[in-house]
Each structure stands twice: as C-alpha cells, then as structure tokens.
Design brief:
Ribbon-helix-helix fold, 2 strands, two-stranded antiparallel sheet, 98 residues, Ribbon-helix-helix domain-containing protein, 16% strand, RHH_sf, alpha+beta
C-alpha cells in the first residue's frame, strides 16, 4: 500500500509559482503542481480561469473572514475539500444571480 504513495512522480509535488492579480495587486502563489491541477479542475466547474477563480475566492474570503493569514494553505485545503466531497463540492453556486 505505501508503495502506491511512495511511487508518485516527483514532478507532481514539485513547486510551481504563478503570478496572479488579487484585488488589483500583482502577487505570486507557489503551490505544488498537483494542487494547480486540482484548482484547474475546480475553476473549470465554475466556468472560470484559475486566476479568475482564485481572485474571486480571495475576495469572498475577505468579505467573510477578513485577511487570510496563509492563503496558499487555504488553497490546498480547498483542493482537499473538493476531492473529499466529490463533484458536487465544486458545482457552481446556484445562489449566484447571472
């Protein structure tokens, strides 16, 4: 069983840094490549690009909780929640008004 986890391609957990605009400010986010792939899947379910999804998410978090101390950790947790809950977790919010 551990062999399955131990044999993961090192490229999947290599870091990748991407530049993103959050609230009009340019910043960079450094995540493992596997998390970027999951964020791409989540963003697709929202009909958004990854930068737009992350920017929208950041704005909503600020509105709900104020500044997030470790936004990259929050992004990793979002990925895990999406995996744990399956496709319905990433379904577009039906409360949004078009």
């Amino acid at each position: 069983m551990c062999h399955f986890f131990a044999s993961q391609n090192p490229d999947s957990y290599a870091f990748e840094t991407r530049s993103i605009r959050l609230n009009g400010q340019s910043t960079s986010i450094r995540l493992e490549k596997i998390f970027w792939r999951i964020l791409e899947q989540i963003a697709r379910t929202q009909d958004m690009s990854v930068p737009r999804f992350i920017s929208t998410l950041h704005g909503e978090i600020l509105g709900l909780w104020g500044e997030v101390a470790n936004f990259t950790s929050h992004l990793r947790c979002i990925c895990l929640v999406a995996l744990e809950r399956g496709p319905e977790a990433a379904a577009p919010d039906q409360r949004r008004v078009a």
